[in-house]
Fold each of these.
Amino acid sequence: MGVMKGGGGERVEKLKYSRMKLWMIRATTSVLLWTCVVQLMAVGETWGPRVLKGWPSCFTHQDSSFSVIEDKVLSVPARVLPPKRVYKNNGYLMVSCNGGLNQMRAAICDMVTIARYLNVTLIVPELDKTSFWADPSEFQDIFDVDHFITSLRDEVRILKELPPRLKRRVETGTVYSMPPISWSDISYYRNQILPLIRKYKVLHLNRTDTRLANNGQPLDIQKLRCRVNFSALRFTSQIEDLGKRVIKLLRQNGPFIVLHLRYEMDMLAFSGCTQGCNNEEVEELTRMRYAYPWWKEKIINSDLKRKDGLCPLTPEETVLILRALDIENSYQIYIAAGEIYGGNRRMASLASAYPKLKGDFIGAIRPWVFSKSFIPDGSIRLSCFVGE
């Protein structure tokens, strides 16, 4: 019995071994076959279209439209991005722009140029939300932020926000913040601002209007400013499409002129130009000037400012200019601005000289905010138009 048991045990062991061996062979074979299938699929994607190019199509005429669409998609040239500029990063620059759209746009051009020549990383600028305009728009609401970043990648590195480890400094209020000196040369930023960036790693410039001098700068700096202004700062597609529609509507009614009078309350208060204003308006403008502590000039002689050529044209003077330029009264005149100070009273002479004057003189907020309404004669009424 013991011998029989022992012999049976050996046969069982051999049977188990043979089954395991068979299972291993099957598993290995399956892996090899799967590998071959994957390799053939990869080769088929590469060579299949070439091999099958001359074969008759299995698609019907209806299905062939898909191949036409596919050819059109493939024929669109891919966007070629400029190569990244490689440089040793000296730190991060945050900027808060101030003023109207025109001032902020110019400031962005300056800050990109400064970041480029200081070899720092620029964080997408913050737009003014607390000034006279009180507009909540972010950079990406106005400009194509991705185009802004990629189009300048060969000049400067731009990020939408700080890296997490540095972002916590902003949240805790420990970032060094300061206003740079107005109309400064680029050497000021190299000698005064760059050491601060190297020391603190992150520097926040909280006022950016007119902080880089316009004249006497190296040609490369001026070229970069122009590139930012005319190429990198592109409006969002929604704003561009709306602008095209407005232009189309304007052209339907014949020749037109769009005027930005720069005759808003904040402009007059800042400049101190009060020609044509009554005593109450002069007092109101003076109070506004004193209310803004960063407007350094408080006591202003309006007549002297005017003689120095530092005042905007009044609406009444604009009529004289248009007539001197032989602009016919049949032209459409559209007012592109915020609220004209003095309202319809100051616009009366312009409206009388040009009956096709259009524009809501009250309530416009920012030049990129369009508000239009149609009136019975088929024309269009705009609260604002193309910007400052």
Amino acid sequence: MGDEVVVGDHQPLLAKEGRSTISLIFFKFISAIFLAGAICYLFVSNFNAWTVEAEKFSSSLGKQDALNIGHLNKESTVKMQQLKKETCDLWTGEWIPNSGGPGYTHETCNQIPPYVNCVNNGRPDTGYLHWRWKPNACDLPPIDPLKFLNAMRNKSFAFIGSSICHNQVFSLICQLSEEEMAHDIYHDSTYNTRTWYYPSHNLTLYVIWAPYLIHYETIDNHGDASQINLHLHLDILDTMWTNEYGKYDYVVISIGPHFYKSSIIYENNQVIGCHYCPHLNLKKFTINELYSKALQFSLKFIAMSEHKPFVIFKTWSPDHSEHGELPNEIVCNRTRPFREGEISGGDGVIMRGVEVEEFEKAAATGVRNGVRMELLDVYYLSLLRPDGHPGPYRKYHPFDGDKEKKVKIDCMHWCLPGPIDTWNKLLVKMVMNSDADDSISASALL
């Protein structure tokens, strides 16, 4: 019995002890897993928290960098704009009110051609007369007629180009008339080529009709509208200006709008194409291609000439034609200047680009040859003045007796007085500055 008890008691004790050992091991295993999990959790949580903070910190740095860069960029832009404002630039600026008005009127200057004598022709608004060009960081004073005429004593001044060129000449004559009236001493049968003389200063002023600079022919087409009557020779210069070129001290070139006309193009007296000629089976020239070739050939002659006047090339003059309320109606009836951003340049920007490119190439050649050439860049300041054209007032009181009368609209030429007077203020400033530079250079050599 004892053995049985012992044995009986012993067997249950061993089983219980084994079960306890297994439970302990299992508990320790579970605890280890729990502890490991807790550690992992804490690590992952801290890592995520650190990552989030790092990302926030990185993002904060990125944003700060961006803000810093943005601030620098903004600061740089402001500085550039400030520098631009502090640097005199005759060609950029704004039109500001001028209560004083123009320096002459149709009553004080009798040289204003009828087609641009807008006030006398009955234009009812006069606001366009009361603006002046204010260049960036400097001022543009009125012409001092006596000072200019004295500087031009014993000189000759030639304007070569189209009707816009004539428009500018009459503006200059009127601005000088306060000191001395020009004497009209020559004109051809068409009045396109003319000569004026200032006897008190021995100054001769020429205007030469050469709307293309290159040679052109107008062929009688006997009324056949399908035939183009304008022929342009890209390799022959117009002798109207080249024959007398050697006697000019100052030359102003002003061409452009006539190139829009339909034309047959020649080189070596052979037809090589045409412009604006859809009905002809010829190579088509765009206006900028045609204009570029004509300018290149003409300006090369100037830059390489043995005669070395001071040459000023005036840029394109904008046309402000707009569509009216009626079908096919063209108007230019605005009464105030555009503000910056209110108008884009249109085709004129492209043409001005052609002019600047060809002028810069020719001017570089001119420098090597001792020919001074400068650009009178009036395109943008003129673009802002849609109010400066005659419109219907190119004739005397065009609507008298009939307000609905159809009349010719002129959105190309400029009223006198008017915005075009500024071209000559800039021109005179360029010429006077050039003469001053020459005087300084000559003094330095003595």
Amino acid sequence: MADPEPEKAQLSSSLNMSAKKELLSTAMKRTSEWIFSQEIPSDVTVHVGEASFSLHKFPLVSKCGHIRKLVSESTDADLATVELPNCPGGAEAFELAAMFCYGINFEIGTENIAMLRCAAEYLEMTEEYAVGNLVGRTEAYINEVALKSLAGAVSVLHMSQSLLPTAEKVKLVSRCIDAIAFVACKDSHFSMLGRASDIGHHNKGLPSKPIVDWWAEDLTVLRIDIFQRVLVAMMSRGYKHYSLGPVLMLYAQKSLRGLQEVFGKGRKKIEPQQEHEKRVVLETIVSLLPREKNAFDLS
């Protein structure tokens, strides 16, 4: 009997490729609409990954320092093609940045702010080139909106994982981690005060039944190395090591599903990369385990 797994993988790959081509086609169609609305023929084609955008040099060079340099330093006086192979966030992020250059309104939110900030950095969209440029706009949203709530900070941090190293360069990762640690420790402090009256027994001064805090679920979407950095930041702010037990348990339950099938008897076949990732998760969690008794008593 034929193994259905390769067929499923091939089908999934085909569907992903089809969806990708459809998204790129939609992006190029939208840019064509921008050109038509300007009633001026495009004079530059910008290639970002597999997507091509037919645009105008003037709105781009007026706000994008990186593109201005490429145009000015080119030996071709009528440079008609610009390559941006390393734009963070790819075609989706560049499309939004281009819309900003054209003065087209779009909504900024926690789901796109990370790639917008990183794309703006890559394109050098600073105040040096235009007042109220994209770097300043995104920074204002990050500081005044995104990092004001734990959900916002976690969402931005989650999106930043695919935008390294630029997200590290603009300190987006470190700022999100600090904001999460601050909120989590603040919440833990007040919740522990509220629980004090319900705790009848202590083991060497420690609560005998740790409770999973409301924010712990949000952290399970983070990559293990980023998750570890969050916990280290929390402990540096005074979060008690023994309180990590329930948080680690929750993360392990989410990220190590099927572990017994992989490493136990009758091992299930798994790709080397996936096996390595699960090993790293397991080893990291073990290294973070609290040493106090009853740290995992969730009953």
Amino acid sequence: TLCDPVSYAYYFYYYYYIFSGIIYFSICFCSCHKTQESLLSSASGYRNYRGILNWCVVMLVLSNARLFLENLLRYGVLVDPIQVISLFLNDPYSWPAACLVIVSNVFIVVALYTERQLSKGSFTELVGFLVHCINLAIILMFPGAVVLLVPSMTPVGGAFVLGTYTILFLKLYSYKDVNMWCRELSTAKAKKLARSLSCPSSQHLDGGDRKVCYPGNLTIRDMYYFVFAPTLCYELNFPRSPKIRMSFLLRRLFEMVSQKNRWMIPVIQSSMKPLEDMDLSRMTERLLRLAVPNHLLWLMFFYWFFHSSMNFTAELLCFGDRQFYKDWWNAETVSYFWQNWNIPVHKWCLRHFYKPLLRKGFSKIVSQSAVFFLSAFFHEYLVSVPLRMFRLWAFMGMMAQLPLAWFVGRFLCGNYGNAAVWISIIIGQPFAVLMYVHDYYVLHHRQEAD
């Protein structure tokens, strides 16, 4: 009975444990809070921002659609397809840009002929080196002289020609080096070269694969495949994809022909007066206005060239290595950006310029500075020669990357470093564009008006 102390204690503890279990169950399974970070905090470890990225794209499309419509209503059609074609063909009876591109085949044949003679022993290494040096020097000087001296050559046509010849220069330089390494391997002068995979010998070949060995690579077919392949570094056996994917090819083709931009023209036109008057506040305002459309144009160019065009070419040629860029948008240092936004050029500089300098005893700082100097030279070459004026803005902009890289790497890190890289891209480029446009306007249009 309940009056019994033992029974009373028994029932008391029985119901106490039942009640305690219910409370514990409620606390454990009905709790709505726990220690955790907000998703936008870096400590949360959350990385899926696809929705925010889509929102940025939608806002970008809507804002620039408004800007496009505003410029169309205010300024009319500024980009006429006939005018674009006339940039290349000022004189319908004289096509200097197209002629120069055709003439480039002469330098390709000379490089191939020289390598064939070297492989047979008809040329000594010294003679072959001198022929290659002369051929490469003419590749840079000849089109530049034509662009400067031929009046019918337009700035756009000149830039296209010089870009084509610069790519050919880098390709033929790599072609010369790799074949030289192959001759060194064949004569046992450099048995342990790290570059030996570029020119495989019999021990590097798999039984089922048909690989080309030196000098079997010295053919017209092999040379022109390399000339058109989306790479600057030559190999005897490039990785190949099994077949051409038509759907992939058509998507890249659609992306190539669908990207246009016309927003910078009104801003540049309205910037001439502040630049002439040296109005610093108005110049700064125009620079900031130009920064956004210039940056969008640069991003569109990056996607069009490094993704759409190069993937289109690679798919057409069954070229297997499609790593034309890495995640440069996550760069926390300037050096990381330059190493990852243009992989073909980075590989060429690393393989044919930076590492050879290190092997010759130069320090890393000197070698890196030399790479930036070479890049600065080509940037200035591709801008100043077509415009027929030498202002060194592109050269100084590239050389300024050295102290900027030191500063960002030394004092900034993480998100701050990434923000500094983005600011340098967004602000630095439109500044150089304004300087060149101003100088070109003063040199040509204002003189004509006077």
